[in-house]
Specification:
The protein has about 240 residues and is α+β, with helices and mostly antiparallel strands. The protein has one domain: Cyclic Phosphodiesterase, Chain: A, CATH 3.90.1140.10. About 35% of the residues lie in helices and about 20% in strands.
Amino acid sequence: MHYPTSAYRHAAYFAPAPESPGWLLGAQWLGRCPRSAQALTQPLVDGWTPATFAQLTQEPRRYGWHGTLKAPFSLAADCNVQSLNSRFAEVAAGLAGPFTVAVELAKVGNFLALVPKQPCPQLQALAEVCVRHLHPCAAPLPATEIARRSRGGLSARQMQMLEQWGYPYVMQDFAFHMTLTGILDGLSPDQIAQVLQHAKDWFAPVLADGLQIDALSWFAEETPGADFQWVRRFEFAS
């Protein structure tokens, strides 16, 4: 395989199986396939121009269609991509077989996302093992980055998690979501309702069948601000 040896950051994501409805619908919604690095034609929303919808989905498009399990991190000085690959493989090999999560559309903070319909202990446990097992390969966050992130009104526990794990929303505060839009500031209630209804129609197969959580996916950001690209998929032990 091709290792992203010079990548700026790496991340552990859940991404649906290639060619599955969950993957194809999500990648087209965002307008980019992180596996092929190809732009995709996005669905048309009634009353919206393609350019306006592309703007609304610009931020999540950069990260690719995914649910975060361990947030993006730079490699530690004593870790290389081969070591990181081994750690991904160890996590996947130690997990039980696939499980399905029922999902719904929701407003998370100030954006739209697919989220679990009810708490899912298996997802929580998956995210925790990813954070714990992959973190030894993560470089410490610079003090300037900790200061920047802490300006968002974090709780004392979230500050502790930020300093310990490089991200505040882990362990008890982890909340799985697959982001559909950027921030909704500036949109009217009618516009938000239009996007929400279109998402319900577009993702109807996923809302009906749920998401099969069957693998970890390694994504990488080659340079600061670049699009995240798929590197490798690690299927769970069956």
